[in-house]
Amino acid sequence: xxxxxLINRRPWLLASLIAAVAYYFLRDNPIGEVWLIVLKGMxxxxxxxxxxxxxxxxxxxxLAVVMLFSALGDMGIEFDIALGGGLFFVSHVLASWLYxxxxxxxxxxxxxxxAVVLLLxxxxxxxxxxxxxxxxLYGLSLGGMAACAWMSRFPRYRVGIGAVLFVISDxxxxxxxxxxxxxxxxHYLIWPLYFAGQFMIATGVVQTLGGEHPGREKAA
Length: 220
Hints:
This protein has helices at about 5-10, 10-25, 35-55, 55-75, 80-100, 110-130, 135-150, 155-175, 185-210. It has 9 helices and no strands.
């Protein structure tokens, strides 16, 4: 979208992008650990506000809560990985509920097969990468979220791919827990993959809902 439209009509998206980019480049600087944690959470928290301000109906409210729990997970994982994982687990369950409320009409066999692959392969790969059963159980919620997103009526090239990027970002995290040494790649890849996925999910869902209410445009 044009820069002026982004500033005037989508300020929460702009704020989200600014926070995410700032965190990526400042995370190794000694500006204060607490401030960096807050900055990290702001990226997706702003997407929650975007959903509340630009979305319509209960689906937009559910999306906002999904993004809020993800933002809390972003911050919580800096204190304890189990705390962050628990918050993301809640986020995945709520996101799956959102997508199940919005099923795609008449999906073809290939689409169903890909959803099954996401559901089953995600926890399996999570376990292979981490060697941790609890991570595999978390991966089941992650794969369920991605499978439901893929089968929802929301645009697959936005929401579906966004969910897959989320899965890949977590795979890179899990590689740090097991025997797979990716060197410095996780440091550079995790945040861009994760945030891009969340951004695509939020904008894809909100714009779909907004397109169904063309006469009720909200101020951002």
